[in-house]
Design a protein that fits this description.
The protein is an alpha+beta fold. The protein is built from 9 helices and 19 strands. The protein has 2 domains: 310 residues, no CATH class; 40 residues.
Length: 354
């Protein structure tokens, strides 16, 4: 399944207007940092071979997704719920808070592409975003240990955290999801003769959906209908790709493309694990019109399908793998010979002696 779902649980207040949700999504593909590979090499001996070894050798990139939720008129919201189609037991491996990083003025401007500034609060886990001295919304910094709860259900995981509101302003949450489903949003097509070519062009298709009932468990849909749906008013979906990757087509008109600032975004990603290279942000957007809002009609679901073409140096990786395998075979062979040498000599002398 390639769809996430977002809803909320209501508090004890009387039902009122549904809260509005603006959703910001950054879908990243980045290469691993060299130090990451060093750590992998050091721990390789403690891991199984098989698929992990294949991924270690042939895949030098990773995918993750940053979600930003701006919730307006949330007086009736008790908890925010997000479903992802993978089972997890360790919430720290699934969710990482990004709100703390946005207190940096350069980052808040880069993320929202607006000349925002921030003010700090001494006694709370939030800070305000301001423009021309006017507070616009608050960013809440999630404590993964205390604020996040996860539950395995409906063939996936439900992420739940309590909603907070301050000074009657919208509340914004931003966090990172690192789960197999993010990698599985992409599938690839390669030329039939790719093995014979040192470098060739591969095709990558990205298929991402939000609240798509055709891709959600029917029991989950029933559960969501028993709870409350946000009025999804706006979706910003950004696909972050290396400038060398060639955009081909998407299922929606491209709203815009911009090149990301190197130093700013290097500090945004986890540069201890990922290596930031010059990237473009491809922007797809869906917004409920004023007519739809007046009729209380909002976005029921969102889908994004994009096609990219990129060069893949597969043969080079095969050669590197062959060299490493030959070295390991040599080391293993020498060690085995040294281990067996005394026994072989005894057998030899026994045979010669008779």
């Amino acid at each position: 399944m390639n769809s996430i779902a977002i809803w909320y649980e209501q508090n004890g207040n009387a039902p009122g207007n549904r809260p509005e949700l603006d959703l910001h999504i950054n879908h990243w593909k980045l290469k691993f940092n060299r130090s990451f590979w060093v750590r992998k090499l050091r721990s390789l001996s403690t891991k199984t071979i098989g698929r992990k070894w294949e991924r270690f050798v042939f895949q030098n990139s990773d995918y993750f997704m940053d979600l930003g939720l701006k919730i307006k008129n949330g007086e009736n919201v008790e908890s925010v719920c997000i479903y992802v189609p993978n089972k997890f037991t360790d919430k720290k491996k699934l969710v990482a808070d990004l709100g703390t990083r946005l207190s940096d003025k350069r980052l808040i401007t880069a993320v929202f592409n607006e000349p925002y500034n921030t003010t700090t609060v001494t006694d709370g886990k939030y800070f305000s975003v301001i423009e021309n001295s006017i507070p616009l919304f608050n960013i809440y910094m999630l404590d993964i240990d205390c604020d996040i709860n996860i539950e395995n259900k409906y063939h996936g995981t439900i992420i739940k955290f309590p909603f907070k509101i301050f000074n009657n302003l919208p509340t914004y949450y931003r966090f990172r999801l690192k789960a197999p489903f993010v990698n599985n949003l992409s599938y690839f097509f390669k030329p039939s003769n790719s093995f014979l070519e040192s470098v060739y062009s591969s095709i990558e298709i990205i298929d991402f959906r939000i609240n798509d009932t055709r891709n959600l468990d029917v029991s989950l849909i029933e559960h969501i209908n028993e709870q409350q749906k946000f009025n999804l008013a706006l979706v910003h979906y950004f696909v972050m790709r290396n400038v060398k990757d060639e955009y081909v087509v998407s299922n929606q008109n491209m709203n815009g493309v911009r090149q990301l600032e190197d130093k700013t975004w290097t500090s945004y990603i986890d540069d201890s694990e990922y290596l930031y290279e010059k990237s473009f942000a491809y922007h797809l957007k869906r917004k409920a019109s004023e007519i739809e809002r007046s009729d209380k009609r909002f976005i029921d679901e969102f889908s994004a399908v994009l096609k990219f073409r990129f060069e893949d140096g597969k043969l080079v990786r095969y050669i590197v793998f062959a060299i490493i395998l030959a070295m390991l075979t040599e080391v293993f062979g020498n060690g085995l010979y040294d281990l067996c040498k005394p026994y072989l000599l005894n057998i030899y002398h026994f045979v010669i002696g008779h």
